Amino acid sequence: MISPIILSSMHQGLKEIERNELLETNEESKEYGLTLSESDVKDIITSRNYTLKGYGRIELDIKTTKQLIENIYKSQFTNINDYLETINDMQEIFYYLKNETDDKICDDEIIELLDELYEKFSGNLDNVRGEADEFAKAFKFGKV
After folding, report:
1. Cα atoms found within 13 Å of the Cα of residue 75, Cβ hemisphere only
2. What is the mean pLDDT of each run of 10 residues along the chain (144 residues)?
């Protein structure tokens, strides 16, 4: 049996890796005038964990979030005032689609779809969310 102390230590180590990986996105995003603070990164991880729990999902790495962030900061429609909110909302939409499509679409395809929708709707997350919902419905009925 693994001791709770070892598990706690492993969990802390994973949190540190996730934090560092997200902070590394600043190296490129600063060219777009967008950076994440330590507090922002903590918020993103907390939001991600809350979303995962809500959808009954488990993720073993932070790769998806990093890919979403990279697409978001490269968009001309992202600004500093809503950067953090956009990241958190896009994470939630991503996991919503993963659930609604029963994991039958790979992560990269969903990320690409979300990127296309974000650009199509000039960064309007209400429209992205609505179109993602329509996509999920069409997928369920075999129209995608």
Report:
1. 26
2. 48 77 97 97 96 93 96 97 98 97 96 98 98 96 82
